[in-house]
Amino acid sequence: IAHGKPQRETPWWRGHVADLVARAEAGTPRYVYHLPTVRARARALRETTAIDLRFYALKANPNPAILRTLEAEGFGFECVSLAEVAHVLATLPGIDPARVLFTPSFAPRAEYDAALAKGIHVTVDSVEALQRWPESFRDRAIWLRLDLGRGDGHHEKVRTGGSDAKFGLPVAKVNAFVAEARKLGTKIVALHAHLGSGIDNPSHWRDVFADLASLADQVGTVDIIDIGGGLPVPYTADARPFDIAAWRAGLDEIKAGYGRYRLAIEPGRYLVAEAGVVLVRATQVIEKDGIRRVGLDGGMNVLMRPAMYGAYHGVHNLSRIDDAAISAFDVVGPICESSDVFGRARMLPAASAEGDVFLIADAGAYGMAMANTYNLRALPAEEIIDV
Ligand code: LLP
């Protein structure tokens, strides 16, 4: 069909520039989250009846206001540590434990025991766990996490399937796992796979569902199929937005053939990435060997993604938002590492100067969650906008 390529919608913060500049007065670096954007993304994932269970992967952003917002939108929560589990239970008192899923990786036995005792869902991804800790799993219901032999995603560091990845039981070991589970009276009630993050292929999830459903037919006791998270967001200005309608259509179609299974998803990034920005302030502008650099008061300590994955985040000078962005600058932070670079040759207003408030875009997922105190820098502040 011949139609123009879908454009990114205007980001929410374009309507809040004066407010954001004012908020920066209270101190930078500062994360700001826009709850209406979180709600809009949550609703985009609800426009299908194919999905029965939605878990938000709170490793992306555990901010309590975001958890409350997504709980109100009908989401449960996927946790990768007992501390995340405790955070959900403390933030949302009275939440039904059945809305919490624990997907540990190489956790000690005590963590499985604690999670099972709370009545939350727990994934297991090795035969070794059942063999070494039979009393932990005897007569329990568990979810089996699988490695479908392939990974996908925006960077090799976020692929969680295939031999090089530490996650998941390989399909070749399913029979051994089922036999071991049977011995213990352990019931496999769900099959789970999360193969990576930032996967820009709408049919990925329907393929994962199909693979898991055919395995579920073999296992026999399965009720739920969890196809993971990994939905991407457009980070660059000219990026094509993820085709969420095609994603939903794929799930509708595949679910129609496997109505006996309940379908679960566990997205993180898609729900929160575009809702978050970081406010930082320019410290110095320095020219060296023909390269002009603008330094900001937060760097890879505040937002690690560019240094860790070469990830792109838009950089905007809010103090001069009406000036043409016609001069190339490298945008750097204050950290004692050469990788402390937000972007190279970014086009910014020529007059960009010390004291200007800058905005780093699309930082709501894996931003504050991965912030750290390297060089003994304080963690950023966080605040919410709900209009
Ligand atoms: N479920 C499981 C089991 C996961 O391991 C993850 C993410 C998710 C769900 C949510 O994935 P999402 O929908 O957010 O793609 N720090 C990296 C991403 C690491 C993802 C870790 N696991 C980044 O900033 O790109």
How would you summarize the topology of this molecule?
Elements: H1 17-24, E1 30-34, H2 35-44, E2 53-57, H3 64-72, E3 76-79, H4 82-91, E4 100-102, H5 109-118, E5 121-124, H6 127-132, H7 134-137, E6 141-147, E7 169-170, H8 174-184, E8 187-192, H9 204-219, E9 224-226, H10 244-257, E10 262-265, H11 269-272, E11 276-288, E12 291-296, H12 305-309, E13 315-317, E14 325-332, E15 341-349, E16 357-360, E17 381-385
Helix pairs in contact: 2-3, 9-10
Descriptive account of the structure:
A hairpin with a 2-residue loop joins strand 11 (276-288) and strand 12 (291-296). The chain is built from twelve helices and 17 strands. It has helices at 17-24, 35-44, 64-72, 82-91, 109-118, 127-132, 134-137, 174-184, 204-219, 244-257, 269-272, 305-309; strands at residues 30-34, 53-57, 76-79, 100-102, 121-124, 141-147, 169-170, 187-192, 224-226, 262-265, 276-288, 291-296, 315-317, 325-332, 341-349, 357-360, 381-385. The radius of gyration is 22 Å and the shape is elongated. The strands form two sheets. Strands 1, 11, 12, 13, 14, 15, 16 and 17 form an eight-stranded mixed sheet that branches. The two termini are 37 Å apart. Helix 2 (35-44) packs parallel to helix 3 (64-72) and helix 9 (204-219) runs parallel beside helix 10 (244-257). With 387 residues, it is of the alpha/beta class. The model has no long low-confidence stretch (mean pLDDT 96). It folds into two domains: 46-266, TIM Barrel; 274-385, Lyase, Ornithine Decarboxylase, Chain A, domain 1. The structure holds ligand LLP.
